[in-house]
Amino acid sequence: MRAVTSNAKFSDLTRELHEHLTTTENKQGALSKYANTYATTAMSQYVGENNRLLTNDLGLEWFEYVGSNIETTREFCEHLTEKRYVHKSEIKTILKGEIDGHQCEIYEKTGLPKGMIEGTNEQNFQVNCGGWNCRHQLVPVAKEAVPKNEKEALPYRNNPDYTDVKTNKQGGMKATHKGHIDHTNEKSIFMGLNPTQLEEACQNQLFRMGHSAVFCDESIQTKKGQNDTSLDLLLDGKRMDIASVTKDVINYRNVLGNKNKQLSRYNQLEYVNEKADAVCLYFHDTKMFSEQKVYDGIKRLKELKYIDAETGEEKSPNLNIKHVYCVVRGTDKLHKYDFD
Question: Are residues 132 and 61 in the same domain?
């Protein structure tokens, strides 16, 4: 075009086209470049089609996104190789560029992540994968080969009420329900942290240690429109409530006593089918953790007495707490104590 608008000679136009199309020692020509792109894409699609046929024949639902990344690897492929395991129910969301909370850049013309082949959909994604020149493959795998935490995370990833769903190589999994109470705007209560930051520190510590830590829905309300009694944590599938220890005390009777009452109120709710019997204590200051103070706290709790208003008899409160889990910042062990 430049040769035409500048009234260049036909020979100059021929020479420029020749230089653009052919390969030299210093650059790859357009013919070679696009031939390589089409050849690489065709080979990848051939393998992808075989993977698709294998998937259909065996009825598999899980995949592994495999292949090495290079300097020019697309954003989409970088995040999907990091994610690694994909369930077929996630593909629709992934094609929107949403990969475990990260939004990839979308090419407006195709409505797909940049670099993907136009028309890629849930049915042919396994064939096209990341698009032109992509050397990654979506390989079907048996459910038994998928890590436990990836399978645990799937229902949370597919549930729009949950955010920040993450897994890691240590076997950890975390998620947060949108109804989990947020204290972000409250003042700091300990070491410059507010209640929400302390809870998140506890969740992240459990996550790093390879545990499942899910923040639960706390938005259920009573008929009077007030928040009902709730428990905020599912730790390895067991429901409990977190209490951050923020004072250096003789024992943990007070904090355990408060949680014991909370468990009692929660267990009396008509929609609670499985009674809760556990508490999670979080120690942001490692010096405040003491195993003996856990035992002493439960002992003192059992020794408490009160006068029954109806009978006038002296009684001890019911001990709803049967298990105490202690999470200590910066350590790699979850401490668990069981009580009768």
Answer: yes
Closest CA to 116 of 134, 100, 140: 134
- Among 118, 144, 170, the domain boundary falls at 144
pLDDT in tens, 40-91: 777 778 788 888 898 999 999 999 999 999 999 999 999 999 999 999 999 9
* CA dist., res. 220 & res. 223, Å (int): 10
Q: Which amino acid is residue 37, in one-letter code?
A: T
Q: What angle do CA 156, 158, 160 make, to 5 degrees?
A: 85
pLDDT in tens, 251-280: 999 999 999 999 999 999 988 999 999 999
Residue 189 and residue 255 in one domain: yes
Please return the burial class of 319, using the count of CB atoms within 10 Å of its CB with bins 0-12, 13-18 and 19+.
middle
**In the predicted structure, residue 249 carries a pLDDT above the cut 80:** yes
Between CA 242 and CA 335, with CA 231 as vertex, the angle to 5 degrees is 35
> Which tokens belong to 88?
């077929």
Domain range for 82: 2-144
User: Residues 270-275: contacts with CB within 8 Å, 24+ apart?
Assistant: 274/239, 275/320
